[in-house]
Specification:
five-stranded antiparallel sheet, about 5% helix, 1 helix, 30 strands
Amino acid sequence: MGSARILYLLLAALAIAACRSLQSRPSFVHAAGSPVSLGDRVGQPLLADMDGDERLDLIVPCAGLGDDGGGVAVLLGRGDGTFVARHPRIDVGWTGLKTAVGDIDGDGRPDLAVAAHDSHDVFLYRGTGDGRLERWTTVSPRRGGTPHTHSVAIADVDRDGHADLGVTQSEHGEISVLLGDGTGDFVHAPGSPFAAGVHPYEGLVLKDVNGDGVVDALSPDLHGNAVLALYGNGDGSLGPPEVIPAGTRPGFLAVGSADGGRVSVAVTHDDDPSLLLLTRGSTGWRSESHSLPDRAWGAAVADLDGDGSDEVLLGGLGDRLYLLRRGEVLSIPFGAGPPSTSAVAVGDVDGDGRLDVVSANFGGGVSVLLQR
């Protein structure tokens, strides 16, 4: 085969690869009615089927709405990327709300845990199956000291079939684990609260990260410049934290899967336009850092382009989202609506088989971005 023929085939292969890369690069358009106004401050959006119709609904904590404190809005999905508020907002009376969704009472319906920034209390709401949430009970992970809660998570930490709670107390450098019995009663796990660095912050994750079948805890340590991995013992207790260097002021993390089923952790930073990607392997944690055009906060890890590997989606503080894909940071224009996103959630909200994005906006409300 002549050299000209070889060169032609090589260039053709590169062109095909480039076209495939461009075709699989995610692009987004606003859903009808997006952005949705919910007030001047909104927190991490969550997606779950709250009314049993097999469509994703939207749960959004709303902090500091006027003089009436905070609350949680549940917007029911119509299946086409649009949402409607069929039930009144849940008024909690606190600002800086943190939320988690899970089946706490074991009836197959998602329930809600709500924690406030300036309270030790965690408020539990039972899902009724039609999108409504009824006040159930209140648990307090800590008594005394200055309340400073930055995250709440739900998982079965002690392997008894009932959902448990994890809560960060940032001011005290602690993570509490409360073991549930399915009836609304919770007790501290053995040894809880657990020492967790200097200032455990946003994005507490309860998940098996070392592959032993037991739930572990991961949290950024804002003032400790690290990510903390507290490995579970199977009875609800956590071991001492493994300290993983994470750069200056890591404030938020999200967890997904890397190639081969390994755990991948995306970490954003409060003051630094960078993304740290931690991957758990057989010999421990491997880290790689990526520069961003601007600072980012919220993150989600998911296979957005359908190639079988997870990407990292970031809420940028400019007028766009950022996507780490195959080692490259891509900018995704935000389009119409208020700029600057703080947190993101990923799910198929219009039923077309592609993952879409819901972003919380600093300017107020949420944007629903449909993948095209």
